[in-house]
Amino acid sequence: MLILELAFTDNGTPERLAARPAHRQRLIRLHTEGRLVAAGPWADDSGAVLIFDVDRSELEEIMAADPYYGAPGVRVQGVRAWTPLVGPARGT
Question: What residues form DSSP beta bridges with 88?
């Protein structure tokens, strides 16, 4: 699994807020397909965490197809491989 961490570098630029509804619809689809385990913003709306059950190349494709990741005010903080000990397991 991969964890994608985003930082929001603004208070909600019009471009980021305009891209958000389509982005959230994509997340729902990815979750339904089993490629996204969970996603959501930090409580203070300073960023978000997304947990994907995909390999790195597939994550790159997902990000390239979603304009939200390149919207003003959205910065990819990092991508890290994650091996959960408790909770969802890869492929289940």
Answer: none
